[in-house]
Amino acid sequence: MKLIQKQGFNKKEFELIDDTLLIKTKTHGDYKEWTVRVENIGDTKYYQSGTKLGVNIVGGFFALFVLFVIIAFILDKHKAENLWTMIGIVAIFGSFSTLFLLIPKKRELHIIGGSTQITFFPDSPNKEEVDIFVNELICRSKKILLDKYGMVDPDLPEETQMNQLNWLKNRNLIENDKPPSQKVVMFV
């Protein structure tokens, strides 16, 4: 199962292979690649969103400055002498304005609760694909943990097994849904 994401100049690629997640990230000339064991991934989704207010204000300021320069040039009697100056100013500040206004809003989805945190772009390529991938990742993580720590192993001390079951219960992977009269008691 594979998920490829892009946000601005950032690119992330996730590939789920059995009990391993391969992650590749590419940002502003930086490339990273690593693997994470699925059992180390948590099961809680945490959404984070930034604001573009400051960036939009700066971009709007540059756009207004470009507009002011163009109006001043139109009203100027010596247009021929100032043509290249106006073109240079409009090109420089127009590109700044465009750059600031096109910066994407920071939106991230974090999977937390395990020993490793994974970050996704929640809208890339679309919300449905991200939800399917993240839910599959969380399901596999839970299954691996249950298979690994939820089984009774006669070679392990009872205290260790009880600690493992308590840990699974604290992570909400197992529930104590039986009334006290129906609990199973183990005698050694």
CATH architectural name of the largest domain = Roll
CATH fold label of the largest domain: PH-domain like
Give the spatial strand order of the biggest sheet: 1-2-3-4
The average pLDDT is 83
CATH hierarchy class name of the largest domain: Mainly Beta
What's the gyration radius in Å? Answer: 28 Å
Q: Sheet with the most strands?
A: 4 strands, antiparallel
Itemize the secondary structure elements and their pairings.
Elements: E1 2-7, E2 10-17, E3 20-27, E4 30-37, E5 44-49, H1 53-75, H2 79-102, E6 107-112, E7 118-120, H3 127-149, H4 158-170
Describe the protein.
There is one protein chain. The chain is of the alpha+beta class and 188 residues long. It is built from four helices and seven strands, in the order βββββααββαα. The chain has helices at residues 53-75, 79-102, 127-149, 158-170; strands at 2-7, 10-17, 20-27, 30-37, 44-49, 107-112, 118-120. The two termini are 44 Å apart. Mean pLDDT is 83; it is low at 178-188.
